[in-house]
Amino acid sequence: MNDMKILVAKHIGFCPGVKRAYTMAIQAFDINYQPVYLLGELVHNHQAVKMLIERGARLEDEVEQIPDKVTVVTRSHGLERKTREKLLEKGVTIIDTTCPRVRKVQSLASELEKKGYTMIILGDPNHAEIKALISELNTKPLVLGKDSTDWENKLNTLPENQPLAVIEQTTFPQQQYLDFCRLLEEKNLTDRCLIYNTLCLETEYRQNELRSHLQTGKIDVVIILGGKHSSNTRGLYLIANEQAPRTIWIEDPNEVEKTWFQPNQTILIVSGASTPDCAVKELMKKLNKGKVYE
Asked: Which of 41, 80, 129, 251 is catalytic?
């Protein structure tokens, strides 16, 4: 391993929003000594959720599976309006860990809708953040996912002369946001369209930092550490996979294998925003101790 250079991105581990959510979840164990339930995964990272379960939390995906009058920690991605109503009917104590950035986007969308704008949302329609966002609106928005081949057809379904407003999922890939803005220009829609870049700053920092490293041309391998169902982690993978000579995406440091590396390589470690700091440190420890390449 002495011949291998290991670089670690500056922005690693939990982002501020996830750190806040995790802290709130830990504090929930002290509330009236009630059993603590997680309604869905707090964040999109199995290790982070596992740490809470090991403390005694119980994970359930459906409201109906949660008993009455317990403490319920909801996801950092946001809470759908109908889900909140069902929880209140059960008399539970709700610990709403919705990321402040996500809540800010919800408020922005509601205000724009009240002003008469037709909402266009860039994001995964099946993602918890987008479901919660849509539940705050009274009209049906146009949701455009990451499949850009379908964007133009869906834009053609919008009513003519209707004012439009664009927001995005906070973890949406930045490059696809820029691609969509170019499409709006090509279709001459920018004159009647307000465009808001609602990408989380932490997500943007990590994506830009990764690009900066790759632009040096000195990176041989990029290791992406984070949940395979994490949107912001997937964004990092897409960037690295397009530009790096080799990109490896793992969820757990124990997945690392000796055969992946060669002497004199420069390896860059980056992590998703919901990846625990301890997981990053464990990966660094494995690399530095020579357990990967001997």
From this structure: 129
Q: For the chain, how many residues are written?
A: 294
d(CA 254, CA 259): 14
pLDDT-above-90 percentage for the chain: 82
Per-residue DSSP letter, 158: S
Strands 164-168 and 193-195: parallel
Can you give the pLDDT at residue 71? 94
- The answer for 93, left when phi > 0, alpha when psi is -120 to 50, beta otherwise, is beta
Q: Which residue has the tokens 């759908």?
A: 80
pLDDT higher than threshold 50 for residue 22: yes
pLDDT above 50: residue 27: yes
pTM score: 0.86
**Alpha helices, DSSP H, located in 136-259:** 151-155, 174-186, 201-215, 231-243
* Nearest one of 212, 206, 155, 207 to 180, comparing CA atoms: 155
Look at residue 74 and give its three-state secondary structure.
coil
Burial (CB count <10 Å: 0-12, 13-18, 19+), residue 215: exposed
Our answer to whether residue 129 is catalytic in this structure is yes
Instruction: Say if residue 166's pLDDT is above 90.
Output: yes
Q: Cβ atoms within 10 A of the Cβ of 222, count?
A: 27
Query: Angle at which helices 128-135 and 100-114 pack, to 10 degrees?
Result: 40
pLDDT at 152 over 50: yes
The average pLDDT across 248-275 equals: 92
Q: For residues 279 and 47, is the Cβ–Cβ distance under 8 A?
A: yes
The helix/strand/coil state of 249 is strand
